[in-house]
Specification:
alpha/beta; 395 residues; binds pyridoxal-5'-phosphate; 7-stranded mixed beta sheet; Aspartate Aminotransferase, domain 2; globular
Length: 395
């Protein structure tokens, strides 16, 4: 018999009751070091006092009015995102998939408005992930996620990342845009090279295409800058953001230049809950913290330290860990044992991590960790690797 909760997830047998900073506490009081962050969502850890206060203050005042009215928090957060990015304008939704959906609609609308309604196709990259709606599944083109859900929505072409020739030959008169994650998350923590991002930008400009970045996972401070694209200096025309932006409160945003958003006029797109006062209070509080002087410097410093320590683990347990990859606090351990075994072994050590494609274990700690958390993580990783290493030796 089906469970009351639709069984679409393979869940670990763990229930958490509360969280504080980088730790989650199970119902029986055990502490777990949280290097999963609810899949790169709880960017400031659990129960961050500034976020808790922002949400509870707002909860006592006003929850929802709909977008039939102006919303102060939206205007403030949009202005701050605009001031700190390439973008001129922001649409607020409730999730990553909706942010990508808005980006895809906007790309089609842009070409329709500018006299090229036949340009509707979007080029995407193998190994990418853009969400679970019909359009975002078709965008990513992953067979395993599309299987059984009928004909995939038309309008997407797929090429391997870092393959410039394949990208060039995929561009046709019908191409509207190119969508890419600057650092692939679900695909296995694979940063895209600066030169490839530059090539995408140049090709797009040459052919009149829009560049869409999906920074849902790699954005909001995860790489040590507010957005990952800042490292390359290659700005997109449209960018999807979610996950960390609400620190655990559901929200997403689609950022765009004025030019790309030319067709997004009143009535063209909408969302009942998008940008509601609760989400906006948290989103503004998240930016308060991330935009404080020194926040990103600390992320970079602690991530360098973590990476060094992980390299030592990889050296010591070469039969378990093949490679450390990623950037900032978006790191991956490419494993020689099944990544699920590594995640289970870490869980036995009271540490949480997330799987990814390409047999990778993702380490996505909250951005507020310090050296003591790194020390705790490395101790737990060492113990986990030791069990896996001796197991593989004895088998
Ligand atoms: C998680 C994720 C999404 C989908 O976000 P949802 O909030 O689950 O809809 C899209 N793109 C990337 C890169 C993601 O990591």
């Amino acid at each position: 018999m089906v469970t009351p909760v639709m069984p679409t997830y393979a869940r670990a047998e763990l229930v958490f009751e509360r969280g504080e900073g980088a730790y989650l506490y199970s119902a029986d009081g055990e502490a777990y070091l949280d290097f999963a962050s609810g899949i790169a969502v709880t960017a400031l850890g659990h129960a961050h006092p500034h976020l808790v206060k922002a949400l509870s203050d707002q909860a006592g005042k006003l929850w929802h009015t709909s977008n039939l009215f102006r919303i102060d928090g939206q205007e403030r957060l949009a202005a701050r995102l605009v001031a700190n990015t390439f973008a001129d304008t922001v649409f607020f939704g409730n999730s990553g998939a909706e942010a990508v959906e808005c980006a895809l609609k906007m790309a089609r609308k842009y070409h329709d408005e500018t006299g090229n309604p036949d340009r509707y196709r979007v080029i995407a990259f193998e190994g990418s992930f853009h969400g679970r709606t019909l359009a975002t599944l078709a965008a990513a083109g992953q067979e395993k996620n599309l299987a059984g859900f009928g004909p995939a929505m038309d309008g997407f072409d797929h090429v391997p990342t870092e393959d410039l020739d394949a990208l060039k030959s995929a561009i046709t008169d019908e191409t509207a845009a190119i969508i890419i994650e600057p650092v692939q998350g679900e695909g296995g923590i694979r940063p895209v090279s600066e030169s490839f991002l530059r090539a995408i930008r140049d090709l797009a400009d040459e052919h009149g295409l829009l560049v869409i970045y999906d920074e849902i996972q790699c954005g909001m401070g995860r790489t040590g800058k507010l957005f990952a694209y800042e490292w390359s200096g290659q700005a997109p025309d449209i960018m999807a953001v979610a996950k960390g932006i609400g620190g655990g409160f559901p929200m997403g945003a689609c950022l765009a230049t004025e030019r790309a958003a030319v067709g997004m006029t009143a009535g063209s797109h909408g969302s009942t809950f998008g940008g509601n006062p609760l989400a906006m209070a948290v989103g503004n509080a998240m930016l308060d913290v991330q935009l404080e002087d020194g926040f990103f410097d600390r992320v970079v410093a602690v991530s360098n330290h973590l990476r060094q320590q992980l390299a030592m683990i990889a050296d010591k347990f070469g039969d378990v860990v093949e490679e450390v990859r990623g950037t900032g606090l978006m790191l991956g351990l490419k494993c020689k044992v099944p990544n699920g075994d590594m995640i289970a072994a870490l869980r036995d050590q009271n540490m949480l991590a997330v799987g990814a494609g390409d047999n990778v274990v993702r380490l996505l700690p909250p951005l507020i960790i310090d050296e003591s958390h790194v020390g705790d993580a490395i101790g737990k990783l060492e113990s986990a690797c030791a069990t896996l290493s001796s197991e593989s030796a004895s088998s």
